[in-house]
Amino acid sequence: VNTSKNIHDKIFSKMTRHLDRASIKKVIDAGSGKISASILLKYFPNAELDAIIYPGDNRKKNPLENAIGSDRLNVIEADICHTTFRKHYEFCLVHLSLGEARHFDNSFEDLFHNIMQIKASYFLIIDIFEDPCVHFRYLEQYIKEKDFTILKKKKFKNPKPEHYPKVKIDKYKLEFDSKHFMAYLIKNDSMDK
Predict the structure, then answer these.
(1) CA distance 115 to 80
(2) How confident is the model at residue 66 (pLDDT cuts 50, 70, 90)?
(3) How many CB atoms lie within 10 A of CB 52?
(4) For residue 64, what pLDDT is reported?
(5) Orientation angle between helical segments 108-116 and 136-145, nearest 10 degrees
(6) At residue 1, does pLDDT exceed 50?
(7) Global pTM exceeds 0.90
(8) Does residue 58 surpass a pLDDT of 50?
(9) Distance between CA atoms of 73 and 75, rounded to whole angstroms?
(10) How many CA atoms within 13 Å lie on the side-chain side of 169?
(11) Which of 135, 120, 98, 96 is nearest to 190 (CA)?
(12) 40 three-state secondary structure
């Protein structure tokens, strides 16, 4: 049994249970991976999925193309911080992507701002609560100041915590354990106008 997939499936199910999943047709996975793409295709059976991965990130590209192989999956290599997405989506998943900004020479703020510029009706953001590179207070303040509403916010215990040794942030090296996941379901109020 894949514990990692099970906890993320549980989070997704609980956070999106009030949405009419069958009616959602266009979905974007910002910072896609095999687990997130599989969950999106499962829960949105009628949706086309644009899976965005960083250019040349074969650790994500190969499993997406080889393992999932759905005709509803479109793998797009794009740096979210330097790409404008013009297409309208009903749902955007940001699954464990914000903390990865540092791996691709981007800042949390730049990545987060560009993700929130995606034209999507709903966003589901899931990331590691203990990750020092993910600034949840900043995220919440941004949401309050802009045209968004947090519909649901929940912390989930990670049944299989992982240790992240010596994450380099600027000139500092930090360690952390992934004991919890933080999830936000966010409504884009500007899509109603």
Answers:
(1) 7
(2) confident
(3) 23
(4) 85
(5) 40
(6) no
(7) yes
(8) yes
(9) 6
(10) 16
(11) 120
(12) helix
